[in-house]
Amino acid sequence: MILNEQQVRSIVKGAYTIDNNAGEYRFHRFSKAQEQYYSEVSPRDFYVKSFATSGIRLDFRTDSDVFGFTYRIENASSRNFYFFDIYVDGIMELHRGEKDMWIKAGRIDMKLPAGEHRVTLWLPCLSAAMLSEITLDDGASVIPCPSSRKMICFGDSISQGYDAEYPSMAYTNRLADHFDADMLNLAIGGEKFVPGLLSQEFADSFRPEIITVAYGTNDWSGFERALFEERTNGFLEKLAEYYKGSKIFIITPIWRGDNHRVTKVGTFDEAIRFIADKAASLGLNVIEGRNLTPHVSGFYSDLRLHPNDFGYGEYTRNLIPEIEKGL
After folding, report:
1. Which one, of 232, 241, 237, 234, lies nearest residue 273 by Cα?
2. Are 190 and 220 within 8 A, CB to CB?
3. pLDDT digit string (tens) for the chain, length 327 residues
4. N- to C-terminal Cα distance for the chain?
C-alpha cells in the first residue's frame, strides 16, 4: 500500500512544514518567512541551501515485510553526493545514494524482518530529497514514534552536515537521536551569526527544550571586527530574549587547520573569547568547541575544516556529555 498524506505527515520529524504536490512530498526545515529572508539576502546560495533535507527523517513502527519509496533529488549545497540511511531497530541496514549525483531520481525497496520493528529513514543533509510512493505491505501497521522533546540546531556548514556521507552520522542528527528530539536543523553552509533568522513569531510556533548554536568560524574568516561583534551580539541577544524557557548551548568554533591566521576579526582565540564572553553574559551555556574534535587532519574531509564521518563521531562523543551537564 502507498501511505496516505496523513500517515506520511505523522511519521516525519525535522520538518517545519511539508508540501504535497500530486503525491510528492517536499520537506521544509525553515519557515516560509525564513525562506523569504534567504531569498532576499542570498537568492543564489543560502536560499538554495535552505531546501536541503538535513535533519529530516521518517520514524515509525510497522509489521510490514517490505518498505520502499521513490525519490527525486535537487542540488542544495556545493557538494555532489547524496545518500539515504535506513535503520531497523537502531541498526543501520541500508546506505544508498550517489557519490557524484549523476542519477537524481530512483526508488529504494528493502525487505524487513518478520514481526513489528522500528524503521528510521534519514534523508540527505546536503541535497533536497522529495519522496513519493512510500510503501508498505497492504494492511501493515504504521505507528508513529513520537519524540519526547523538541530541539533546534543553528549553525553553518558543519552543523548542516558537511561532509558526512552517512547522513545519520552528522553530529546534529546524532544529537537528535540521543536526546530523542524532533530536531529542526536551521544550519546553512557558509552562514555566520544571523540575527535576521530570529523572530518572536517563529519562536512561539516551535518551542524547543534544547537549542544548540555553532556559528563563528565563518565570521572569524570573513568579517571585519565591528560587523562580527554587531552580528554576534544581535543574534545572541535575540536568542536569549525569544527562548527564555529553553536550554541554550553555544558551541564555540571547532579546530581548524588554519587557525594560526590573523584575520580582520583578530586571532582565532580572540574570536572564540568574544563569543564565549557574550554568551556567558547572557546566562547561556558555553561549550568549548576546540575540545570536541581531533586536531588531526585525517578526521576532516578537506583536511582542515569540515569533519568526515569519523570526525563527526568524535564530535558527537565529546559533545553529548557537555550538553547533558546543562540539562
Report:
1. 232
2. no
3. 999 999 999 999 999 999 999 999 999 999 999 999 999 999 999 999 999 999 999 999 999 999 999 999 999 999 999 999 999 999 999 999 999 999 999 999 999 999 999 999 999 999 999 999 999 999 999 999 999 999 999 999 999 999 999 999 999 999 999 999 999 999 999 999 999 999 999 999 999 999 999 999 999 999 999 999 999 999 999 999 999 999 999 999 999 999 999 999 999 999 999 999 999 999 999 999 999 999 999 999 999 999 999 999 999 999 999 999 999
4. 42
User: How many Cβ atoms from other residues are within 10 Å of residue 44's Cβ?
Assistant: 7
**Which grid cell is 321?**
556529555
| Contact (CB, 8 A) for 243 and 249 | no
Which own/partner contact pairs does 229-236 have at CB distance under 8 Å and 24+ positions apart?
Answer: 229/274, 231/192, 231/193, 231/194, 231/195, 232/193, 232/274, 232/275, 232/278, 233/278, 234/193, 234/195, 235/193, 235/194, 235/195, 235/197, 235/198, 236/193, 236/278, 236/279, 236/282, 236/284
Residues 6 or more apart whose CB falls under 8 angstroms from that of 102 comprise: none
- Cell numbers for 43, please give them: 537568492
Q: Which ranges constitute the DSSP H helices of the chain? A: 5-11, 32-41, 46-49, 157-160, 171-178, 200-205, 217-222, 225-242, 268-281, 309-326
What is the pTM for the complete model shown? 0.97
